[in-house]
Amino acid sequence: MLKSLQIKNFILIDHLEWRPEAGFNIITGETGAGKSIILGALGLLTGARADTKSLLNNQDKCVVEGVFNLEGYDLSSIFTENDIDYEGLSTIRREINPAGKSRAFINDTPVNLEVLKEITDALLDIHSQHDNLLLGKADFQLQLIDSFAKNQGLLAEYQQSFGLYRKCRKKLAELNETAQKSQKQFDYDSFLLKELQEAKFGVGEQEKLEEELGMLDNAEEIKIKLAASVEALSEGEIAAAILVANVVSNLNQLSKFANEFDTHKARAQAIVEEIKDITRELSRIQEKTESNPEKALEIRARLDLIYKLEKKHGLGSISELLTLATSLTKQVSDYQNIDTEIANFEQELEVISSKIEKQAQSLSERRTAVFDTIVRQFSSLLVDLGMPNASFYIQQTASEYSETGTDKIAMLFSANKGLAPVLLKNAASGGEFSRLMFALKYVMAEKSALPTLIFDEIDTGISGEIAVKMGEMMKKMALGHQIITITHLHTIAAKGNAHYFVYKEDGAARTNTKLRKLSETERIDEIAQMIGGKNPTALAFESAKELINSH
Q: 33 with 512: CB under 8 angstroms?
C-alpha cells in the first residue's frame, strides 16, 4: 500500500507530503482546489505522460516520489523479472527536468516507463471519470472478464503463439505472391545470369584489354619513340648514360680531395645503373611491340561484349557486372528453393494454427465459465446500488483470430423493467456508468491482491441511500485494500478512517495547493459544510456528528 507521497514543483504544488492510512482514506475540498492534481501526480508514478507544462517553476525539476509497503503481497517475482532489488518498503520516483526530459527510478534503479507501468500496475488501481467511458468499449470489457477469470498467464501464452502465427502467415503470403511471379522472373534472371557466366569476366580484365589494344593500335609510333628513347639514354656521344658516366669519373678523381665527393659519386653511379636498367626495359618493350591486326580484332570483340553488357545493365565496370552475377545467382537459387520454402512454412503454420486454436478455445471456455458468476454478482450489486430492475448480460460471439483470441464480447444493459438490454455504451447514463464501474471494481477487488485502489469521484450522479450503500461497500473493500476516495458526497466522506482536505493557499508570488489531515472537530466542520453549504446550520452539524459516529 501507499505509505507516503511526496510531490515537488508539480502544477500548483510547490511541496506536499502525504501519509495516507492503511484503511479507508477520504479526500475532499472545494472545486478547483487541486484534488485532481494530486491524482495526476500519482498518475506520473504509473507511467502517465509528462512534459514541462507539469512544472510549477520551470527553472527547477519536478519530483514525485511514493513509498509503498509491499509486505504480504507476494510481489517479489515481478521485481526479480525486471532485475530490480525487491524491498519491503519500495520507493518509486519520477522526475521531470526543466527541459522536459523524464526519468523514473524504482529503489534507485533507473527504469523505462514500460517497466514502471508494469510494477505500478501491480500496486495501484486509479479510477478516473475517463474509466466510465472505457467501460462501454468491447476490449475493456474483455479485459475485465479476463481479469475475473485470471486468464493473464494463458492470454500471454496465446499472444506469444499468435505473434508467431501472424508472422508465419505474412511470410507465407509473401512467398506465394513471389511464386506467382517467379516463373517469368526466373526465366529472365536465368538468361541474364547465363549471359554473364558465359562471358567469364575477370577482375581488372577491361583495363588490361584497353591498355593492350592501345599498344597494338599504336605499335609503330611506340617503337619509334622507344628507339629514340634508348638512343638518348645509351647510344651516341651525348647519351645520358655516357654523360653521367663522365660525371662519375670526374667525382672519382675529386674524391682524393674530400670525402663528400665519394657520396656524390655513389649517387651518380646509381643513376648510371638506373639508366642502364631503364634502357634494358625499354629495349625489351620495343622488341615485343609489333602490329597485330588479328589480335586487335580479337580484343575489340571482347571489349565490345564488355561494353554491351555494361550498357545493358547500366553499370560501369566488370567489378559491378560480377556483383550483379552474384546477386542473380542468389535470386535464381531462391526461386528454385521457393516451393520447398512454401511447403515448410505451410507445415509450420499448420502446427502453430493447431496450437493457437487450442489456446483460444481454452480462453473462450474460461471466459464463458465466469459469465454466470459475473452476471449474478453484478445483478446483486446493482440492486444494492439502487437499480433493482436492471438487466445485465454478457454476449459472446466468435470472431477471427486476434490478439485476444476468437471471442467478441459485448456487455448488454438495461436499467428499467420491460426494456430489452442493449449495448452498455448505448444504455447507461452517467450515474449508471459510475455505479456499473464501481460494481466492477468491487468484484475485481475480491479477485486481486492489489494493495491500493483510488476512486476519483466515482460517486458522480448518485445520492441518498445509494451513496450510503456505496460508502459501505468502499469501507468493506478497505478491510482488504487501501482505499483512497476523492468524493463530494458527505455520506461517503463520513465513512472514512482518515479524512484529508485539499485547499489553495495564496502566497506572495503564487497560489499553492495544500493537503492536510482533518482532526475530528475539523472533520465534523467539513462534513457539515458538505451538507449545508458554507454556513452550515446547527442541524447540519448534528447530522455530521451522527454520520461520523454511526461508523
A: no
Residue 194 domain boundaries: 179-336
Position 128 scores a pLDDT of: 67
Per the CB < 8 A criterion, the answer to whether 492 and 26 are in contact is: yes
Run of H or E including 20: none
- What pTM, to 2 d.p., does this model score? 0.65
pLDDT tens digits for range 290-328: 777 887 888 888 888 888 888 888 988 888 888 888 888
How many domains would you assign to the chain? 2
Strand-pair category, 102-106 with 89-96? antiparallel
Same domain, 314 and 248: yes
Residues 205 and 65 in one domain: no
Residues 110 and 198 in one domain: no
- Top pLDDT among 395 and 181 is at 395
Name which of 42-46, 166-170, 189-193, 345-349 the model is least confident about.
189-193
Quick one: pLDDT band at residue 472, thresholds 50, 70, 90? very high
Do 120 and 207 sit in the same domain of this protein? no
pLDDT of amino acid 131: 62
Same domain, 3 and 118: yes
Q: Is residue 72 a part of any domain in this protein? A: yes
* CA-based max dimension of the chain: 140
The answer to whether residue 259 scores a pLDDT higher than 60 is yes
The per-residue pLDDT of the chain, averaged, comes to 86
How many CA atoms, within 13 angstroms, populate the side-chain half-sphere of residue 546?
Answer: 7
Q: Which residues contact 264 (CB under 8 A, 6 or more apart)?
A: 251
Q: What share of the chain is helix, strand, coil (3-state, %, to 5)?
A: 60, 20, 25
Cα–Cα distance, 186 to 328 (Å, whole number):
10
- What mean pLDDT do residues 535-539 have? 91
Q: How far apart are CA 359 and CA 355, in angstroms?
A: 6
Quote the CA–CA distance of 544 and 532 in Å, as a whole number.
10
Cα dihedral 533/535/538/542 (nearest 10): 40
356 burial type by CB count under 10 A (0-12 exposed, 13-18 middle, 19+ buried): buried
Single residue among 295, 320, 336 that ends a domain in this structure: 336
| Strands annotated E in 290-377 | none
329 and 443 share a domain? no
